[in-house]
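Sanity check record (used in CI):
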Amino acid sequence: MSGRISNRSVVGGVRDAAAGGSSDDKDNPNEFDALYADSQNSSAPNTSPILLANFGMRCQRLRDFFSLKHCVRWMVFVLTWLQLGSVMNCVDVFSFSMVYMEKNSSIAAEAGLDDIYIYTLEEKSSLISAMAIGSLIGMYPQNNLMQKYGPRYVLTVASFLCATITAFMPWALDTHYHVALVFRIIQGILYSADFGVVGYVVSKWAPISETGISLAALSGFTAARAVIQLPLAGWTTSNIGWRPIYYILSVILVISTVIWFLLYRDDPEEHFLVTRVEVQTITGGRITDHKKDKKTPYREVLSEKSVWAVWFAGFADIFASFVFLVYGAQYYEYLGMDIQANAWLNSMKGYLFIGVRVIAGLASDRIHFLPEKSKLRLFNTISLQVPAFFLVLVVLMPREHPYLHVVCITFYQASFGFNCGGFYKGAALISRQFSYFVIGYIQLFKSLATLLEPVLFSLFVLPGSEGAELSWTSYFLIHAMTLTVANTVYVIFARSEPADFVLNADLELSKPQLPCETSIN
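Expected output for Major facilitator superfamily (MFS) profile domain-containing protein:
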């Protein structure tokens, strides 16, 4: 009788272990060793529970190995960074290739290919703005779709479509301006949810104590331009022309999309590699809300001053970083540098930006001797006011020493890496579960900056063929002033605690249910 009871206990325990339903800890491999010892002491000859226990123990150890010791979230952050960066590369490569399109097309025309369209400077600038128009069109529906279905499916579909459009982009550019204009607008629509994905993934996967480094990893996806796009673009443009870079980047996007779809989940609890320990680390013991129809309190968000301070800082950050992200190739050409130097110097800024961003993210989370609000103000000042200082230095540097310009521009771009501990982190802290909206709508101001940038460039730089130095000076000083004003506004209205719309939403979710609300009729 006792032997039967022991066997039943072993079988029941093994079933619980295999189902992951232990009342203590589903991630404890010692449980299987205990089951094995019990089965050895049992008088029953049945060995199937022992085999099942050994098999379960091996599966558990294999799972622990692939779970990266409760750090799956970092794999998710890296893969999301690569995915968003791959999408951005396909959309953004035009800003590099347009500098050399006219030369390449002229050479092709001399070879007898007269059907290739040659663009004016105004048409090239309008194609940059076309992407921003598409982003404005697609941002609201994309964010709504993502809120309803999650970014896994929405971003995957958008990425495959973006890869297809990018592969046909050289054909569109060679055909006619109006064809290329339509393609660029479609690219902008497909690219419009990038910051919304950042906000969603941070709100679902990042513990509060790791918000800074998580945002450093995710919002820094623009650095993929330096790691992937520019070295490839520099080599292909110098050796085989500008067209192949579009094909290469579209293939990279397809590969990264497949990997991301297989290994990403919208909720940590749904991921097959995430352990209970890591779920508890991510949630911090808080109750997660799984309701798909949760509504965003738009009126309350739009009436919050700290949110507008975040958005203004985001606008200034993107507006100023576009100076060299979009027109850096033109400026280096103005300084007299060739294509390869142009690409690699732009790339060098990106590598430094990544390093600074990681350091800033870690410092934002690990520094404890300053209040959180003081850290937000400090990091935001470094990320906005310091670049304004370096931009003024670029204005003062003589053109005869181009590498002094390169040094200042490099530090200028690197300083933006501190924004993960400034307004980005501030956005996540004040909006919490609504980060997908507050961080996502930085995309709106990014699109506005993209629309405004070609206009300013056309007004100040293009007419300055004889007074180019004065033209670039005026162009740079406008951005330096914008950075200064935006940082001042953020320092005044910065907030580290959850905003009122978050607190009100939490109170609504935790409101006790009244007896009259539990009718069974």
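The chain is about 75% helix and 0% strand. If this sentence no longer matches the regenerated tokens, the check is flagged for review.
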